[in-house]
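User: Second chain of the day. Same drill as before.
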Amino acid sequence: MQRRSFLFGLFSLIILMPINALAAIWNKTAFETNKLNEATKNLDIHDEIISPDIQITAPDRAENGAIVQVEIKSNIADTESIVILVEKNPTPLIAHFKFSNGAEPFVITRIKMAETSDIKVVVKSGNQYFTNSKNVVVLENGCG
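Assistant: Same format as last time:
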C-alpha cells in the first residue's frame, strides 16, 4: 500500500510541476489591474515606438463584443513577446504571449471587448517596445 501511495505522489508531482512553473511566470497584478497605463507599468513596458511592422487584423465592426477574432503578426526582428490590450475593458490586459528563439511571432485568438475601443498591441524586441493599434466598433457589449 505504501508503494502505491508513493508512486501516486510521485506521478502527481511530475504532472503538476509544469503548472506550477507556468504560475510562477504569470503576472497576476498586470492581468488584474483595471487601467491600461497600470497594466503596461506592471509589465515594465516603457518608451513605446509606433511601428507599422505590427500587423493587426480584426473586424472594423464587431456584431458581438463577446467574440472578436484578432490576428497579430510581428515583422520586427527578434520579437520576444506580444501583448494585447483593450483600454475600455474592465481589465485591459487580454493576453501576453512569449516566443522562444526562432518561433514565428504570429497569434490568432478570440477576445472579449466591453465596448468600442482600440486594440493595442505591444511587441518587445531586446530592450525596445513597439506598438500599433486598431479601432474596433462594438455593436453589442461582450463583457458582462
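Residues 19-24 have pLDDT under 50 and may be disordered.

User: Great, on to the next one.
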